[in-house]
Specification:
The protein is α+β, with helices and mostly antiparallel strands and 108 residues long. 17% of the residues lie in helices and 47% in strands. The chain is elongated, with a radius of gyration of 18 Å.
Length: 108
């Protein structure tokens, strides 16, 4: 019984440690006239890296709400964002290397 309690406590501690490391990337998807693009598919690309597991590319995705707003929550660093309209006919990009937040992805 004691080992199970200790193991459960360790899992909770690890979960709490990693939950504090998350970054929130908040933005919106609009068309060329500045109107929100409802339910656009948004992807954030970047890199993750740890001593134990090595480095590698990472992609995190979500769907914008009815007002074109989105939030990506991850423990990784994201630098490039893409969006596509729900019918995938219109696409846009945003890079943190060239622009500062807020993240506004214009789909054309």
């Amino acid at each position: 019984m004691r080992a199970a309690v200790t193991y459960r406590g360790l899992l909770i501690l690890v979960a709490l440690l990693f939950s504090g490391c998350a970054s929130h990337y908040i933005g919106s998807v609009v068309d060329t006239r500045g109107r929100p693009v409802a339910h656009a598919r948004v992807e954030g690309q970047g890199w993750h890296g740890t001593v134990i597991f090595g480095e590698g590319p990472v992609t995190v995705s979500t769907v914008a709400d009815a007002d074109g707003r989105f939030m990506l929550v991850t423990g990784e660093y994201l630098s490039d964002f893409t969006a596509a309209s729900p019918d995938f006919k219109h696409h846009g990009r945003f890079s943190l290397a060239f622009s500062k937040p807020p993240i506004v992805i214009v789909v054309k």
